[in-house]
Model the fold of this input.
Amino acid sequence: MTGDRPLVEVRDVSLSFRGVRALSHVSFHVDKGELFSIIGPNGAGKTSMLNCISGRYTPSDGAIYFAGREITRLKPNARAALGIGRTFQNLALFNHMTVLDNILVGRHHLIRSNFLTGALYWFGGAEREELKHRRAVEEIIDFLEISHIRKAIAGTLPYGLRKRVELARALALKPDLILLDEPMAGMNLEEKEDMARYVIDINEEWGTTVVMIEHDMGVVVDISHRVMVLDFGRKIAEGEPDAVMAHPNVKKAYLGEDAAADEAPAEADGRSAVAPAMATAVSGSRVAAQ
Ligand SMILES: Nc1ncnc2c1ncn2[C@@H]1O[C@H](COP(=O)(O)OP(=O)(O)OP(=O)(O)O)[C@@H](O)[C@H]1O
Ligand SMILES: [Mg+2]
Done:
């Protein structure tokens, strides 16, 4: 479809909010089939970047391409229709609706409803269409193991399960690209392991390209193909997880200048001793932020 072009291309994107520079000349690409993570300290611009790709924000400068087509100024709905799905850092479910209905809402871009399909309804086409949607939703429910809560009201579910339902809703769009904003935040270890497995399967079995923001460095290193690091709105490193974690700029961003200097010897053998310390530093900052 895209030949050799990357699925996502972000070129020199900047974004400001009344004087606050959230993103500054950020460029990167994500290849089809990649599991790409964006990391960085709180306020680094990670969610802003995802919002620029999903269409929630329009960059003040620069351009974004999806499957070879410029989407910089397209509305979020138009991007969803092109195959860009997302989940939110702060859950965005219809709390009063059932799990099943929440997931069906995710399919609305795929439900043909116009004058012509209105006419088709009378000839039985709509029933077939509905059956097709139900089947697709059932597949997602099975995959994410949420069959037992399908009739539950979303708002009554524990946080970890709501995160999973939100993922189900994003998947219902059958996206080629899925943007995940901290899919494991606030989860216990077991829930995190489950979620990491789902993300890997979405990527490997379903062939969906993934861009994930995540603060848990262990998970990021374990499952990402490539990682980009943002700090104060700028890209400070990008590459394979181990190399990125060992990058002096990354240590400095997470641990401060002095700590980075203390860590310097660990770089000599090409592996970083900073990842566990970063994980602690980062989870500490998350606790403070919540
Ligand atoms: N809608 C907005 N209006 C004003 N400022 C914003 C808005 N969205 C983001 N910002 C600012 O842009 C900067 C980057 O925020 P962003 O939410 O992208 O960071 P983040 O890396 O996702 O942080 P976190 O890890 O805490 O989620 C911050 O200074 C933030 O206050
Ligand atoms: Mg964020």
